[in-house]
Backbone:
């Protein structure tokens, strides 16, 4: 998933607990169009092999209720 500036991705339930997710530690990304799952929803036009420089990013976790590790 390509995240555009000012966008957010919310994971909950099994998508948070069962899927592998995270923010890779690097300063840029090389565009590979066929690997972008949300290419039809992008506001910006991206080009194959274009280098996208990453800006500031953050990850926020909010818990509600009990956390069970079963």
Residues:
């Amino acid at each position: 998933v390509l995240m555009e500036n000012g966008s957010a991705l919310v994971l909950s339930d099994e998508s948070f607990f069962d899927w592998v997710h995270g923010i890779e530690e690097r300063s840029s990304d090389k565009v590979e169009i066929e690997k972008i799952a949300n290419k039809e929803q992008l506001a910006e036009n991206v080009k194959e092999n274009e280098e996208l420089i990453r800006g500031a990013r953050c990850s926020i976790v909010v818990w509600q209720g009990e956390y069970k590790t079963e």
Remarks:
- The mean pLDDT is 83.
